[in-house]
Amino acid sequence: MKDTASGWCLPAVGIPQTTVVSGAWVGSCEQAHAPLSSRCTRTSSHLTITVVCMTTVAYLGPAGTFTEQALLQFAARGCFGSANDFTTLPVDSPNAALAAVAGGQATHAVVAIENSVDGAVTSTFDALHNHPTVQIIGETAIDIAFTIMARQPIDPATITTFATHPVAHRQVASWLAQHAPNATFLPATSNAAAAHLVAEGKADAAAAPPRAAELTGLVPLAEGIADVAGARTRFVLCTTATTPAPPTALDRTSVEFVLPNTPGSLVGALQEFATRGVDLTCIESRPTRESLGTYRFHADLIGHITDPEVSAALAALYNHCTTIRFLGSWSITEASPTTSRTQPNQQQPQPIDHNTQTGDQWVASLLQ
Question: Coiled-coil annotation: which residues (predicted)?
Answer without folding.
Answer: none
